[in-house]
Amino acid sequence: MSILLAVTLAAASTVQPSCSWDHPGVNPYTGKTSAAIDRYTDIPEAVRSTLKRRMEEGQSDDKVTITRDGIAGKSKYDPAIRDMHFGAASVCATVTRSKWSAQRQEPGAVYCVDEHCILVPKICGNVSRINRKPDAVAKAPVVAPPPVAKLGKPDGKDLGLVTPEPYEPEELTEKELAERERLQRQTALDAAKKPGIQEFELPETFEFETNPDGSLVVIDPRPLPPYLPSDGDGTTPGPIAAVPEADTWAMLLAGLGILGVAARRRQRRQPD
User: Fold this and answer.
1) DSSP 3-state assignment of 29?
2) Is 112 exposed, middle or buried (0-12, 13-18, 19+ CB in 10 A)?
3) N or C, which terminus of the chain has less Cβ within 10 Å?
4) Taking CA 171 as the corner, what is the angle to CA 166 and CA 173, rounded to the nearest 5 degrees?
5) pLDDT 10s digits, 96-122
6) Which residues share a beta bridge with 16?
7) Is 211 in a helix, a strand, or coil?
8) Is residue 68 within 8 Å of residue 102, measured between CB atoms?
9) Are 133 and 123 in contact (CB under 8 A)?
10) How far out from the chain centre does Cα 43 lie?
11) Which stretches of the chain are assigned E, i.e. beta strand?
């Protein structure tokens, strides 16, 4: 039945091999959209049905701008327009628009199913066909998403975690070691110069030594801070004698003077 209808429509319509479309809107298409699509008998019937439904619902694939030398849209199209409908049932196999000015632009809608694309200019509604270029038809390659680490059971198995590599400290040169020790000593000196009470920790155990006179000496097992002097063998230096104050020197000199005067008087009292 569909073949008979197509043959009848083809016989009823006037097909011209070539004509010009230099004056859009002069001879618009006045027939039905479904009839125009059915005249394209090389398009499979299922595809034609889909095209007719989408055109009736206004579900276009692309909004294009038609110029003298091309058809511009989000997809790439060949500039040639073919099988354009005029009037009630006239069809032109090929149309030309060579007399258009370079600045002229006409909007249109494109409906595509597979490789079959229908162009409908807005100014005249002349249903026609265009070709979409192969690079626009080809689908973009599907990129697989990156694998997601799967979490396992609470016992820690198959958690998808990366085992960290063991840390290996870098070897320092002698110059770097000396600079690090200098910074440590400077930090300790700066901390000692700060006012207030310095915090310290008592050792857990103490060691004792016995002096020749029988007294006990407590030995602190903690190492000396870097800013304290040492005897060179790692032991704690002995107590440092206190420096007398000025008033102490005055009292000492006064006492010596009194002792000298007393000795001189004692010498005078002695007989010759």
Assistant:
1) strand
2) buried
3) C
4) 170
5) 999 999 999 999 999 999 899 999 999
6) 92
7) coil
8) yes
9) no
10) 48
11) 14-20, 62-66, 71-72, 82-86, 90-96, 106-113, 116-121, 128-130, 207-210, 216-219
